[in-house]
Amino acid sequence: MKNPHSTALFFVCLLSMQVVQAQPILNTAPLTLEGDIASRLVAGVDRFLLRELSDSIVRREQHWQRDFTSPLAYVKSVEPNRRRMAHIIGLRDKRIEFDSLTLVSTTAESALVGQTDRISIRAVSWPAFGDVTATGLLLEPRSRAIFANVVALPDCNQLPEHIAGLAEGLPPKLQFARRLAESGCRVVVPLLINRTEKMSKLSNREYLYRSAFELGRHMVGYEVQQSLAVVDFFKRRWADTPVGIVGWGEGGLVALYSAAADTRIDATCVSGYFDSRQKIWQEPLDRNIFGLLEQFGDAELASLIVPRALIIDAAKGPEATIPGGRGAPARVVSPAIESVRAEVDRARKLT
Q1: What is the pLDDT of residue 13?
Q2: What residues are paired with 267 via a beta bridge?
Q3: Cα(283)–Cα(68) distance, rounded to whole angstroms?
Q4: CB 89 within 8 A of CB 289
Q5: Reported pTM
Q6: If DSSP codes are grouped into helix, strand and coil, which group holds residue 124?
Q7: In sequence order, what E strands does the chain have?
Q8: SS3 sequence, 249-295?
Q9: What are the tens digits of pLDDT across the range 167-188?
C-alpha cells in the first residue's frame, strides 16, 4: 500500500516544477519563429558579420598611436602594429642565413636558362626557414653596373619564367623582371604556390593554407618569409645597395606584406592588388587572415611602409572564379579604380 504522505509530496513537487517551467528566464521570451529557423539563423549571422566588417574601419584607429613629429618617431610609433601584423600572418620562424644562391643544374641541364647581350638568367634556390627551400630565377645585367637589388613577384598562377621573358603568354611590356634587369637591377623571382586544383576542387594554396592554419602559420607568411630571405641575402652581400620589391596580383599581396614587415626594403610597387578588403569574404580562402581587419586594411599596411617609397599601380589584376567543392568558392577580380583611389586616399589621411 502506497504511503499517502509520499503521494502528496510527489504532486506538490510536480506542481512546483510546472510553476517553475512556466516562468521565462529573465529578459527572454518564448521562441515563436516560424518557417526555416536555420536559414534565419544563418541570415542573422550574415548581417552581424557584414556589420562588423563595415564598422572595423572606424575601430582600427584605437590600435594605433602614430607620432608625426619626425620620420624616425613615426616608424618607432607603428612598430607595435608591425609586430602584430607579423604575428597574425605567422611570421614566426627563424630564417636561415646563407651567403649565396644555389645554382639549380643537372648533368643534362645548365643553371643558365636564358641569356641575351644585356642580361643572364639562372635557375636558383635558397633556404628560407626550417627545412623549406625556395626556388626561382636570378636575373643579372651583363654589361652595366648594378644599382639596385629587387625581389620581383609574379601572380601565383604565373611562373617566374613568364615575367623573365622565358615563357610565352605575356607581352614584352609586362615582363617586368626582365625589364628591371635590363635597366641595371639584380632581380630574384621566387616561385609562388599556384591555385591549380589539387584534389576535389581544393587548390594547392587552400590545401597548404588549411594545414598552416592548424600550426599557427599562414600561406602569406610562408611566401613573405621566402621573399625576406632574399632581402637578407641582398643586405648581407651588398649592404649599401638599395633593395626594392615589386609584385603583381598575388605577388602584389606578398610585396605589400613584405614591405610592411621589413623596413630594410627601400621601395615597393604593388600592382593589380591594392584595394579595400571589406569584401575579403568573397576572396580566396588562402587570403583569409584571422584578426586581420581588426587593425589592418591595405591602407593600414601602406602606413607601415611610409615614409619609404610606395607605388600603387592600379593595373588590371588576375581574374578567376573558384567554384568550390571541397574548397571554398571565391572570386579573384581586378580592383576597381574607384576603390583603389578611395583606399589610397585613406592611406594618405592615416599618414
Answers
A1: 55
A2: 244, 309
A3: 34
A4: yes
A5: 0.88
A6: strand
A7: 102-103, 112-115, 119-129, 132-141, 148-153, 185-190, 197-199, 202-203, 243-248, 267-271, 309-313, 320-322, 330-332
A8: CHHHHHHHHHHHHCCCCCEEEEECCCCCCCCHHHCCHHHCCCCHHHH
A9: 999 999 999 999 999 999 999 9
Q: State how beta strands 320-322 and 202-203 pair.
A: unpaired
Q: Which three cell numbers stand for residue 211?
A: 594545414
Higher pLDDT, 151 or 19: 151
Residue 124 CA to residue 140 CA, distance in Å, equals 12
CA angle 62, 78, 307 (to 5 degrees): 125
CA angle 44, 328, 152 (to 5 degrees): 120
Burial class (CB in 10 A: 0-12, 13-18, 19+), 55: exposed
One-letter amino acid identity for 8?
A: A
Alpha-carbon torsion angle 306, 308, 314, 320, nearest 10: -80
- Cell numbers of 94, please? 627563424
146 to 73, 141, 206, 269: CA distances (angstroms): 32, 7, 38, 19
Check: CB of residue 273 under 8 Å from CB of residue 250. Answer: yes
Q: What residue type is assigned to position 2 of the chain?
A: K
Count of beta carbons in the 10 Å neighbourhood of residue 84: 15
According to the model, what pLDDT value does residue 4 have? 58
The grid coordinates listed for 209 are: 593554407
In this predicted structure, what is the pLDDT of residue 6?
Answer: 60
* pLDDT for 216: 87
What is the maximal distance between C-alpha atoms in the chain?
Answer: 113
Least confident among 34-48, 224-238, 325-339: 34-48
24: cis peptide before it, omega within 30°? no
Nearest to 53 by CA among 276, 240, 269, 221: 276
